[in-house]
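User: Protein folding is very new to me. Would you mind checking the protein record under this note? It all follows right here:
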Amino acid sequence: MQVYRPQNPFPLTKNSFFLVLYLILAGMIVISPIGYFLMVAVPPPGSPLLVGWLNGRVLRYALLRWKIASPLFTVLCAIVMGGTSYVGLHYGLYWRFLGEVREEIVQATGITDYVQTNQMTDDFLVEQTGSGGFKGYLRLTAQTGVSALRLSSTFGNVTVTGVWAWVFWLSELIIIVLVSFFI
């Protein structure tokens, strides 16, 4: 009787490390800016699907190039790449928020120094949410509401707030990861 040897073992090699690093960089540098544009331009049900499709194409290319056939490793790569691209595109939205708040501060106070305006923005976020920076921005966005669907002009936007905003973001992330995996 022979010892069982799986056909697709989980690859723990130098190549798998470089593949994960490649996918993180691709998610942050390539997919995030495209995803940011899609989140602004395409209604929410379509934008996670398109970001997931882009992730899936890059993931498929990388897995074929490095000749990795492990389903478990593919799932982990889809999670890593989907997470980095999704966090990256929200970080782009955070930078847009900083720019908009900076413009309002400049108009209201005349202060044009980036350090001072960023400090004032952080102070505002800490005052409103208890956290500054990116974490404070996410909390403020969840408090003020996220547009979940853009329906016809008769109904307008459906906005979710609080815990439901976090659930909405989690569902977008899950859609991205699933589409990335199944492409």
Notes: The chain has a mean pLDDT of 84.
